[in-house]
Amino acid sequence: MSGPPDYSCIMAERILLCLCHMSGREMDFINEAFADNWVVPLGPNVTGFEKDLEKFFFGNDKPHRIVALSAGTAAIHLALVALGVGHGDEVMVQSFTFSASANPVTYVGATPVFVDSEPDTWNMDPELLDRAIADRVAKTGKLPKAIIPVYLYGMPAKISEILKVAEKWGIPVIEDSAEAFGSKYKGQYCGTFGRFGIQSFNGNKMITTSGGGALICPDEATARLVTSYATQSREPAPWYQHERVGFNYRLSNISAGIGRGQMTIADSHLAHHRHVQQLYRELLSDIPGIILHDNPGPDFDSNFWLCAITFTPDLTVSGDDGCGRPEALRRALEKENIETRHLWKPMHLQPFFRDCPAYVNGVSEDLFSRGLCLPAGPWVKEPEIERILSAIRNAVSTR
Ligand SMILES: Cc1ncc(COP(=O)(O)O)c(C=O)c1O
Predict the structure, then answer these.
(1) DSSP code string of 349-387
(2) Which residue in 58, 209, 221, 294 is deepest, having the highest Cβ count within 10 Å?
């Protein structure tokens, strides 16, 4: 039998946005699972991974519990289920995000109400949120059932202000921290402020389980409820007994083995992403017209999962034949075998969500029209950044 495919020649050339990186310990945990025949969606790696996550987020102080799940999307879905969100309800969701923040709202039959961002963090605008809730109450006579702010590209939202609005109205917060593993706001990890926090361990995230996620729950009883929902709501009976709807959302013991290996290098991944941002900070400063999205103040400590840039009005990009500057730069870098990505297209502009109420202020539409995400993963080092910057330099100019 031939060995695993050798991708080294491709990887040497192509610079990917955020490619996963193994510690070397992952196979030990996977081999243990095979040796013990724990090739199922529960087992010692799942429990071990949950404990590792709890230690990472809460140290020894843990009223919270963390449940490992098959995806970050599943975590949002189960948070909504656990909060009793259902048909006819509304949920306030950040508009500037990946669709997975909003899709689960539709799974439970509720309607996402989109809220635009503020320009400092690019995340949910607390003042607009407050006005939007007031308007929903006036229009529907009902309070929205949850608020889902997002930490875009790892950047902490103004979560204290969002929580103040949430407390004023008595609405629980589900923090979509899928992109913000290890980011902190005022010294506290993102994902640990609200009623629930979600994490994603998808292949391109800060740490990966190939595919997976986790739900940070406020206490043991809630974690038990969520675990039950994630395992088809099977009741403790000798036969298969079900008293409410269930889902098949538990993380596999094999994937959790990858997660345990990844936790051994989570801190070095975080340090590396911050180092990459520092390099961009230094080297982008001599390209006029390009602004690096950065921590807006000392309270914010992004993991810089992806490094994002925006363009000033006087910047032109060669090859902009009407496709827009972000697309022209994406194409120019693609020609150099460098992967970049448009900023998320706001949910209120997505055809699927066209009928959902939206409270907009122009911020996310403006950012979408003049920004791009640059590569930032563990494989991006000084030579790759030099290559990226030289490709950008060749493609842009200021009038
Ligand atoms: C903001 C955001 N929310 C939710 C998700 C969903 O996570 P998953 O892919 O693990 O389902 C992702 C990433 O994929 C994301 O970027």
Answers:
(1) GSGGGTTS-EE--SHHHHHHHTEEEE--STT--HHHHHH
(2) 209
Instruction: Give the global pTM.
Output: 0.95
Q: Write the DSSP symbol of residue 209.
A: -
Give the tens place of pLDDT for each residue, 33-59. 999 888 877 889 999 999 999 999 999
Quote the percentage of the chain above a pLDDT of 90. Answer: 90
Mean pLDDT of 193-199: 98
CATH 3.40.640.10 location in the chain: 26-263
Ligand 1 atom at shortest distance from the alpha carbon of 213 = 10
Q: Is the CB of 159 under 6 A from ligand 1?
A: no
- The pLDDT tens digits of the residues spanning 97-134 come to 999 999 999 999 999 999 999 999 999 999 999 999 99
Regarding the beta carbon of 178 and ligand 1, being less than 6 Å apart is answered yes
Strands, E, within 57-192: which ranges? 65-69, 90-94, 111-115, 146-148, 174-176, 184-185, 188-189
Residue 83 Cβ < 6 Å to ligand 1: no
209 Cβ closer than 6 Å to some ligand 1 atom: no
State the distance from the centre of ligand 1 to the C-alpha of 328, rounded, in angstroms.
26
**Ligand 1 close to Cβ of residue 90 (< 6 A):** no
- Judge whether 153 and 373 are in contact, CB under 8 Å: yes
The three-class DSSP label of residue 93 is: strand
The boundaries of every CATH 3.90.1150.10 domain in the chain are 266-398
Q: Which atom of ligand 1 is nearest to the CA of 211?
A: 10
User: Could you identify the atom of ligand 1 that is nearest to the CA of residue 150?
Assistant: 1
Structural tokens at position 311: 């363009």
Name the token pair of 266: 């989570």
**Under 8 Å between Cβ of 192 and 61:** no
Spatial neighbors of 266 by CB under 8 A, at least 6 apart, are 56, 181, 182, 206, 207
Fold of 266-398: Aspartate Aminotransferase, domain 1 (3.90.1150)
pLDDT above 70 for 227? yes
For the CA atoms of 317, 321, 323, 326, the dihedral, rounded to the nearest 10 degrees, stands at -10
Contact call for residues 106 and 88 (beta carbons, < 8 A)? no
Rounded CA-CA distance 30/361 in Å is 48
